[in-house]
Specification:
Largest sheet: none
Helix content: 55-70%
CATH architecture: Orthogonal Bundle
Number of domains: 1
Oligomer: single chain
CATH topology: TerB-like
Distance between the termini: 44 Å
CATH class: Mainly Alpha
Number of helices: 7
Length: 137
């Protein structure tokens, strides 16, 4: 099984982060949909395929031969270093879309930043920007 495009990889990662606490809430699902509809990286992606790609992610996660480690490797390999930063930013946005970051989501973000080899200043900037964007008031 492979991930055939960077856009699919981004969707896979957002789904993994959202599902990490075993509760894909409405806020997180809405955020994923908004990201796919509005960000330039998805401009040539067929939005109607979002659900299909998300379901494919769930199948990969449940496949004993792939699992979380395997799917993270597939995501990593489908992305350029710049898009790995974008992926982490999207993962953070999805994780805090419901204005809380539970331990499972926090752990998943730690795994992703380690797997992607992101530099500390980049991670700090992404996380700070996300916390600013999601402030209530």
């Amino acid at each position: 099984m492979t991930i055939s495009s960077p856009q699919e990889a981004l969707i896979h990662l957002m789904v993994i982060v959202s599902a990490s606490d075993r509760d894909m809430g409405d806020a997180e699902l809405a955020r994923i949909g908004a990201v796919v509809r509005t960000l330039p990286v998805f401009s040539e992606f067929e939005q109607a395929r979002t659900l299909e790609v998300a379901q494919g992610c769930q199948k990969l996660l449940s496949d004993d031969e792939v699992g979380l480690e395997g799917i993270l490797t597939l995501i990593h390999d489908a992305l350029t270093p710049e898009l790995r930063e974008t992926a982490y930013a999207l993962a953070v946005d999805v994780a805090i879309a419901d204005r809380s970051l539970n331990p499972e989501e926090h752990r998943m973000l730690d795994i992703v930043k380690q797997k992607f080899g992101l530099e500390r200043p980049v991670v700090n900037a992404i996380e700070r920007a996300a916390s600013i964007r999601h402030r209530k008031g």
